[in-house]
Amino acid sequence: DLAREIAREKIAPLAPYHDETETYPEEPMRILAEQGLMGIWVPEGHGGTGMGALALCLAVEEVAWACAATATNFLATPLGGYPILLAGTEEQKKRYLPRLASGEILSAYSLSEPGAGSDAASLQTQAVRKGDSYILNGTKLWCSNGDHAGVITLFATVDRSKGAKGVTAFLVEPTFPGFAIGKKEKKLGIRASPTVAIHLNDCEVPVENRLGDEGEGFKVAMKTLDYTRPPTGAIALGIAQAALDAALAYAAERKQFGQPIAAFQGIQFMLADMAMAVHASRLLVHHVAQLVDRGTSRVVLEASMAKCFAADTAMRVATDAVQIFGGYGYTRDYPVERFMRDAKITQIYEGTNQIQRMVIAREILALS
Ligand code: COS
User: Fold this and answer.
1) Is 350 designated active site?
2) 306-336: pLDDT as tens digits
3) What pTM was estimated for this model as a whole?
4) Phi first, then psi: what are they for 144, rounded to 5°?
5) Is 300 close to ligand 1, i.e. is its CB under 6 Å away?
């Protein structure tokens, strides 16, 4: 309820401005922190509210209903922070989690590289141990919220020849020597969410900032995605619900041939299909989130299904909403064109929907 109130009253009115100007939604992010929503996923013992995965999905959906870019920035902190929960030492948890929970600092997750997207294990950024530090060299790409993060969970390899088994996770702070934020991408959608490159030029990371053991990083990266693909599905769900709501309102109000277009069966069937898909997405997202909250040890299948289905739904529903708005929908005077642009990224980030289908196929074939 709190997330919905903030989203509708404070975030939605600013969304078109931040989209148009490609500026960071400072005010929405400040309010989300002020109201205690940054700490939903953080256990109470570490300064959060410990409300769990379902609560995070509900909050993310509400924020995304208003502004998918703000929701992406909001989700970047659990994305960077879950690895600390999963693999961090007590000391690392104490150092970072309370500050992430309060919103004092934000986080980000940096896995992808220019040559390593879907094939994440082929990353090339190198980490070489030198005394009490690791020296990191390489370029990371597509880091959401990277230029606003106080700590970034960043993946490098200690041995390129080992593939996934060489990948190691580090907690990198932007003040570390040799760390630099690079190009900010100019994007089709979620334009108020910065997507940046990171350059590591003999970047010095203290040994105490290695997360987990050498070679454990790939599993940490994958387990993290099991927790963050459901709320990524919730971003898609928020966009889809916003597009459906806009289409319903417009179809009831817009008159052609002497009656509201909602009276035409052609439009009714579109709206019915949109509503079914949105409802099914919500059930998939909530189901996997509840499995996580119940402590289910493996949610790979359900997480990929929820993310993939909700993202495809968001794209289809937003495209249909533009269709229902007709020519008006194609202009920036109405929000549905933004929903359509924003929906597209949900089929790409956190693992493309092709990768999700690959993961789903692997899981069901192994089960049978
Ligand atoms: N949880 C725990 N361990 C996992 C795991 C998971 N969800 N997924 C994979 N692993 C483990 C495997 O069990 C394997 O361990 P062993 O060698 O001990 O058997 C290891 O990790 C390597 O896994 P796998 O062989 O499946 O790796 P692949 O190179 O085939 O890649 C995919 C797997 C394609 C699923 C992975 O690279 C992926 O998700 N790519 C998309 C990346 C992505 O989502 N990027 C966007 C996020 S950054 S915003």
Assistant:
1) yes
2) 999 999 999 999 999 999 999 999 999 999 9
3) 0.98
4) -70, 130
5) yes
